[in-house]
UniProtKB/TrEMBL annotation:
Name of protein: Choline monooxygenase, chloroplastic
Catalytic function, reaction form: choline + 2 reduced [2Fe-2S]-[ferredoxin] + O2 + 2 H(+) = betaine aldehyde hydrate + 2 oxidized [2Fe-2S]-[ferredoxin] + H2O
GO molecular function: 2 iron, 2 sulfur cluster binding; choline monooxygenase activity; iron ion binding
Cofactors that this protein relies on: [2Fe-2S] cluster; Fe cation
EC number: 1.14.15.7
Pfam families for the chain: Rieske, Ring_hydroxyl_A
Function according to Swiss-Prot or TrEMBL: Catalyzes the first step of the osmoprotectant glycine betaine synthesis.
Keyword Nucleotidyltransferase: no
Keywords, comma-separated and alphabetical: 2Fe-2S, Iron, Iron-sulfur, Metal-binding, Oxidoreductase, Transit peptide
Highest taxon in the source lineage: Eukaryota
Ranges of residues in domain Rieske: 86-193
Family assignment from sequence similarity: Belongs to the choline monooxygenase family.
């Protein structure tokens, strides 16, 4: 593992081991941390240190607003939080069949996940080795990736199959110009990648659960995550807030529910809310209010909300599972991807599905308004730090301590 090294160092090491760095060989672009007035590293280091994870929850102050507004801080998060360790990026249903693919972006890293004709899963940097054009776009099915710029063509195993019009080129070996691989694995219905691992094995099915979820792996494997649930739909929201504002909102132990989600609050027994924290996971659990006979019951008897650091949320309630992925776009904007899964027995119940999705959408609309309001408050000169409500906001504090640990290491 190369967890203690910068991403750029990993790629340089990989490139120099497999390909001498020469004209045409792939070179990474270093993560640029730029801020006006002072060296960004100093400025960001000071911001990181303004939060003290050693202070107990009941006395702690929250991270300063700069954690949520400063572009240099986000660059450091991308390098230290997102580009290290396993990251959830999608679902098995997106690459279920041979030749399926989907693309994504995390910071400045463009990636494509695909399943080759033999059924093997791969992940690559989605960047053409000729002149850096993005290669694949969106999602779908392809038997090869043909670059839209000059037609270089790659197999779904990353091999460069055809370099067009290169007659006369010297010192060029097609084998040196395959797509740059990324480590990929699956856990349950989820697709994970890690950008900082240079080992050559490309799937670690057995070990990844523990590496990704730590000691919460068993709990989630038995209580929460059901690989058999069919995918119903995906909803995406662009929210004008830092990605952590969305996570904080999720991690407040139901604190905001009675004030902001009247309809949802009536379906939950909020006094039963409990929060468990693990290494990189926190789990919030809540009983649902008993439904009247023949009543619409989207929530079932128990709700479980699992947060997998840094940005993935798995929600299990009644016959539903949904997942939320909060992807930073810039320091004050994020994209949140919702995927809904439902027990097979209800697949034909269109009115139940529509009503459930409508209720869920209402909660998202309410949360978006809250998150965007918080972001504007964080940008106001009136605010610097806040406090935690100790009996409910422990998962949020846990999240902030994990970020601090990554950024100060
Ligand atoms: S950039 Fe892809 S073929 Fe030229
Ligand atoms: Fe909410």
């Amino acid at each position: 593992m190369a967890t203690g090294r910068s991403l750029a160092a990993v790629y340089y090491a990989r490139a120099s081991r497999t390909v001498p760095l020469r004209a045409g060989a792939w070179r990474p672009r270093a993560v640029a941390v730029a801020a006006a007035g002072e060296p960004a590293s100093e400025h960001v280091r000071r911001l990181v240190a303004e939060f003290d994870p050693a202070v107990p929850l009941d006395s702690a102050v929250t991270p300063p607003s700069g954690w949520y507004t400063d572009p240099g801080f986000l660059q450091l998060e991308l390098d230290r939080v997102f580009l290290r360790g396993w990251q959830a990026v999608g679902h098995i249903w997106q690459v279920k069949n041979p030749n399926d693919f989907f693309t994504g972006r995390l910071g400045n890293v463009e990636f494509v996940i695909c399943r080759d004709a033999n059924g093997k899963l791969h992940a690559f940097h989605n960047v053409c080795r000729h002149h850096a054009s993005l290669l694949a776009c969106g999602s779908g099915q392809k038997t090869c990736f043909q670059c839209p710029y000059h037609g270089w063509t790659y197999g779904l195993d990353g091999t460069l199959l055809k370099a067009t019009r290169i007659s006369g080129i010297k010192s060029f070996n097609k084998n040196d110009f395959g797509l740059i691989p990324i480590k990929v694995a699956t856990w349950g219905p989820f697709v994970l990648v890690r950008f900082d691992d240079e080992s050559t094995e490309d799937n670690v099915y057995d070990a990844v659960g523990n590496e990704w979820l730590g000691s919460a792996s068993d709990l989630l494997g038995t209580n929460g995550i059901d690989t058999s649930l069919p995918h119903i739909c995906r909803r995406e929201y662009i929210i004008n807030c830092n990605w952590k504002v969305f996570c904080d909102n999720y991690l407040d132990g139901g604190y905001h529910v009675p004030y902001a989600h009247g309809a949802l609050a009536s379906g939950l027994q909020l006094q039963s809310y409990e929060t468990l924290t693990y290494e990189r996971v926190s789990v919030q659990r809540c009983e649902s209010a008993p439904a009247e006979p023949d009543d619409f019951d989207r929530l079932g008897t128990k709700a479980l909300y699992a947060f997998v650091y840094p940005n993935f949320m798995i929600n299990r309630y009644g016959p539903w599972m949904d997942t939320n992925l909060a992807v930073p776009l810039d320091s004050t904007r994020c994209k949140v991807v919702f995927d809904y899964f439902l027990d097979k027995s209800l697949l034909d119940d269109q009115s139940f599905i529509e009503k459930s999705l409508k209720d869920s959408e209402q909660v998202q609309i309410e949360d978006i308004a809250l998150c965007e309001g918080v972001q504007r408050g964080l940008e106001s000169p009136a605010y610097s730090v806040g406090r935690y409500a100790p009996s409910v906001e422990m998962a949020m504090h846990h999240f902030h301590c994990l970020i601090h640990g990554n950024l100060s290491g």
